[in-house]
Design a protein that fits this description.
single chain, 3 domains, 373 residues, 10 strands, OB fold (Dihydrolipoamide Acetyltransferase, E2P), five-stranded parallel beta sheet, alpha/beta, Rossmann fold, five-stranded mixed beta barrel
Length: 373
């Protein structure tokens, strides 16, 4: 750390010496100082410029080092292609700024011929880097579309309105655990993105005082570790945060808009909020509902009545996928496997309910048996 600070201080001093050499000579005539030995004034210019920037280095070297480390850590997380494209487009920006600055250098206006070209180089290099790194998919299509078409013939577009590269996982989906099984099936494409603020919330839940919360939080962390270790699909951590937004759900929506991603959740309330935010959501509860087998009136089902219903001698049974089956006169078949006939089905926000009735002969026989008892 000390060596780095010395290097930054040295760079500050060298810049100050150069600025003093170029910009301090007009100071002496303005102050009425003249000498026959011009070399003395030149040395004074260099020393004063270096001294001023040495004092600035004492104040700002720590801040410069922190900024450099932050930039270094961010670049270390980027892919080599990202860095190469960014470097190339930055060089192109500098080259364009140099061409524009050639006429300015020839002018004899003090600020225009030296300060403006530097500003142009900074601005053009910045926009070159931004345009190169934020439009990587467009650059790839521009340079490699013809090659891909020549190799494979006509191919489908890999990215369109229905494709989103990032699938953003929220806290509930990791605690639920079914995301791991869904990923293993291979039906979820793209890259899974886990924001750091979701990870921090999982850690907070895992360290909670209540045992139930601790178990939930630890299960979410275990699922995340399994996804990272098994590498079934690409998974990335994101340090993008929104300090001005306190709620995690609102941060998820803001992140999805920023990276053009899809939020994967099982939170019913979050699902409703997202619908008003122009953000796409994948709700695995809706997926589970859509994959449940359909039943039609007249279809036969084999069930076991496990408890009484609320009215009309009803009994309640469940299918293997958890679907509730309300059986008319089911109280006469408690804890007995029976074959029932579907009369209707009802889809609700909580899930699907099936209404069925048992054979009439079975009802009569069970009524007689209960009367004898």
């Amino acid at each position: 750390m000390k060596t780095q600070k010395r290097i930054v201080t040295l760079l500050f001093v060298l810049v100050g010496m150069a600025i003093g050499y170029y910009y301090l000579p007009p100071l002496w005539p303005a102050l009425g100082i003249k000498t026959n030995f011009a070399i003395i004034l030149v040395i004074a210019d260099i020393v004063i410029g270096g001294l001023i920037f040495w004092l600035l280095a004492l104040a700002f070297s720590g801040w410069v080092l922190k900024l450099a480390h932050r930039i270094e850590s961010n670049l270390a997380k980027k892919s080599p292609l990202y860095l190469i494209v960014g470097a190339v487009t930055t060089i192109l920006g500098l080259a364009l700024a140099s061409l524009i600055s050639i006429p300015l250098w020839r002018l004899q206006i003090p600020v225009v011929n030296n300060v403006v070209p530097i500003l142009l180089m900074i601005i053009f290099s910045y926009f070159g880097f931004v345009l190169g790194t934020t439009r990587m998919e467009e650059w790839r299509k521009l340079f490699f579309a013809r090659r891909d078409k020549a190799k494979d013939g006509p191919i489908l577009k890999r990215q369109d309105d229905n494709y989103h590269h990032y699938k953003i996982l929220d806290t509930n989906i990791l605690i639920d655990g079914r995301i791991y099984d869904l990923v293993k099936t291979g039906f979820l494409e793209g890259t899974l993105l886990v924001p750091n603020f979701v990870l921090y919330e999982l850690q907070y839940i895992a360290d909670a005082g209540e045992s139930i919360k601790r178990v939930r939080g630890r299960r979410g962390l275990d699922i995340l570790n399994k996804l990272q270790q098994e590498k079934i699909v690409p998974i990335e951590m994101s340090d993008i945060d929104f300090p001005d937004i306190p709620e995690v759900d609102s941060k998820l929506i803001a992140l999805a808009k920023k990276v053009d991603g899809v939020i994967v959740t099982n939170d019913w309330n979050l699902n409703k909020v997202i619908q008003f935010q122009n953000v796409q959501v994948l709700n695995i509860n809706n997926l589970a509902k859509s994959l449940k087998p359909r039943v039609v009136p007249g279809e036969k089902l084999k069930v076991t009545v496990v408890k009484k219903g609320t009215e009309r001698q009803q009994g309640v049974a469940y299918l293997d996928d958890g679907t509730m089956v309300v059986v008319e006169d089911g109280r006469y078949f408690m804890n007995k496997p029976i074959v029932v006939e579907v009369t209707s089905a009802l889809q609700t926000d909580a899930g699907r309910m099936i209404f069925a009735r048992p054979p009439h002969r079975g009802i009569e026989n069970n009524k007689k048996g209960q009367k004898k008892d």
